[in-house]
Design a protein that fits this description.
- By secondary structure, this protein is mainly beta.
- It is built from two helices and eight strands.
- The strands form three sheets. Strands 1-8-2 form a three-stranded antiparallel beta sheet, with helices on one face. The chain has a three-stranded antiparallel beta sheet with strand order 5-6-7.
- The radius of gyration is 15 Å and the shape is globular.
- This is COFA1 protein.
- InterPro entries: C-type_lectin-like/link_sf (IPR016186), Collagenase_NC10/endostatin (IPR010515), CTDL_fold (IPR016187).
- It comes from Pelecanoides urinatrix.
Length: 171
């Protein structure tokens, strides 16, 4: 399952699932992509289909492994990943080095176990109000689910996860 970033940073007011869907389509990717965020309807840990949570590695756009599987992201260690494996945007840029994302922080709105934090997800990702807060993770920690609280007015990285694996004709 591919983990890919949106092509631009976003404040806490975003239509993230739609953005993930649209940018994946524009990039010529045929699977479905969902935002790597907890929402008012769903905890982050349940975004990927049950059948795909254990057996498929989580990889970057070039197929390099970030996690052994989806469930390993939520084992309580904050989603520790190898920071030497880059995360790319849909248009192929490395979000860890590219200046389009000046703040190397990703929104997630979740606990370390991928459960939604209703007080810290920018009102279900509908506000960029400076007084509202969202849970996010600085990438320099090497964790996708580090527990830091930021104002929703910040423009941070938004990740998308392929949420259904469709084997290709050779798969």
């Amino acid at each position: 399952l591919h983990l890919v970033a949106l092509n631009l940073p976003f404040s806490g007011d975003m239509r993230a699932d739609f953005q993930c869907f649209q940018q994946a389509q524009l990039a010529g990717l045929t699977s479905t992509y969902r935002a790597f965020l907890s929402s008012h309807l769903q905890d982050l840990s349940t975004v990927v289909r049950k059948t795909d949570r254990y057996d498929l590695p989580i990889v970057n756009l070039k197929g390099e492994t970030l996690f052994n599987n989806w469930v390993s992201v939520f084992n309580g260690n904050g989603g520790q990943f190898n920071i030497h494996v880059p995360i790319y945007s849909f248009d192929g840029r490395n979000i860890m080095t590219d200046p389009s994302w000046p703040q190397k922080v990703i929104w997630h709105g979740s606990t370390a176990h991928g459960i939604r934090l209703v007080s810290n997800y920018c009102e279900a990702w509908h506000t960029a109000d400076v007084g509202a807060t969202g849970q996010a993770s600085p990438l320099k920690t090497g964790k996708l689910l580090d527990q830091k609280v930021y104002s929703c007015s910040n423009q941070f990285i938004v990740l998308c996860i392929e949420n259904s694996f469709v084997p290709g004709p050779h798969g």
